[in-house]
From TrEMBL:
Chain residue ranges for the region called Disordered: 1-158
Domain of life: Eukaryota
GO MF annotation terms: endonuclease activity; oxidized base lesion DNA N-glycosylase activity
Residue ranges with Polar residues bias: 18-30
Signal peptide: none
SMART domains: ENDO3c (SM00478)
Span of domain HhH-GPD: 232-392
Keyword entries, A-Z: Endonuclease, Hydrolase, Nuclease
Protein's name in the database: Endonuclease III
PANTHER family tied to this protein: HYPOTHETICAL BASE EXCISION DNA REPAIR PROTEIN (EUROFUNG), PTHR47203
Amino acid sequence: MSRPTRTAPAMARRITRSSTGTTARRQQLQAVKEQPQPPSAGPMVKQEKEKIPSAPPPPRSSTPRKRAAAAADREAKSRKRIKTEEEENKLALATSTTGSRSTSRTNDSDVNVSPRPGRREINTRNPSPNDLDTKTKTKKTVTSSSATGSAAKEVSKQQLQTKKLKSYAQFANQSPFPDFPHPTPAECKLAHRILISLHGPRTRPKEVIASTTRAGCGDSPSVLDALVRTILSQNTSDVNSTRAKLNMDKVYGGSDKWEAIAAGGQAKLQEAIKSGGLSAVKSKVIISILNQVYEKYGVYSLDHLHSASSEDAMREMLSFQGVGPKTASCVLLFCLQRESFAVDTHVWRITGLLGWRPKSASRDETYAHLDSKIPDEDKYGLHILLVTHGKRCDECKAGGKNLGRCELRKAFRKAKVEGEAGDEEKIEEIEEIKKEQKEQSG
């Protein structure tokens, strides 16, 4: 259906209304312009208006929302400028009225600063009794916390020392594994003979002489020197421990300079022995031992242990922090020339391969077990030969593979199977035994 066509009179009426409204608006604007302007607000108002620069017209926004946001932003900036100027005027007025008093207060060291919320302001120049009480309580709390921490560390050290001595006393002359049969005296003799055939005999020297070219492990007639040398040899090679010992002697002007070492402190000693590894731990242990020895005896010496029993010498060395059964046993074996079977990493590994200890045995437990099982006459030679074998034998050194060629391991396969060496190693040893039996019967 087609829309009806507007007639001429209707169109004329619409145009007449539009033009009439436009004319009325123009007349109103003209009347406003012709009204008289109000008088000027005076020079001050004019001066204030001059301070506020007119903002440049903003760029035309594309939407009403953006135009409204821009207008609000302009209004906020204008208010901020007015507020800043008002504050500056107030500050200038206050300065002019206070005069010199303002200057003296500003230069005074006791400038009052508003405290943070929730904290009471303390007058540092003339504190009240309550303020002093608060400071004292805070200081006491900090001191109490540090004292508690130090006391806890001291208790921990004492507990460790007590535990160490108790463990030694419990198994001083017996094995912690009384039902574990190996090694028997005959097995010790056999192992000693095999190792002598492989590496030659090892006999104890009649006199202990401190080496000037190597650190050694307890190789010194001075008990304190032997103890320090053994500490330097912990968890490192002979080459590294020797470097540490020689550099220490160079830094302090010779061997046995205990007073200079103690006076120099831990940091200097740590730097001197850093080539030996674990220098932070070892320097701390050595300084601690020197301090304990001097406090107890008034001299830097432990030579009185030469005349003490093996048990008493062992207990005293174990009383030092950082000294365990292995270190004390080395000093006992090499310096004091007593019968003690020291267990280092090579001895611990090879005795496990031979089935001479339970698989779960720790090194300290292994020491107690083997020291009670191995005859005294075999302890010195067997210890040195096991260490030598652990360094030279491709099958018995760390990470070595069982190729069935090591005479020592071949001799103890049966004992290994009867021990607690682990299922995989047991199967490996059983297969080797079966192979040998088959070859012999064939």
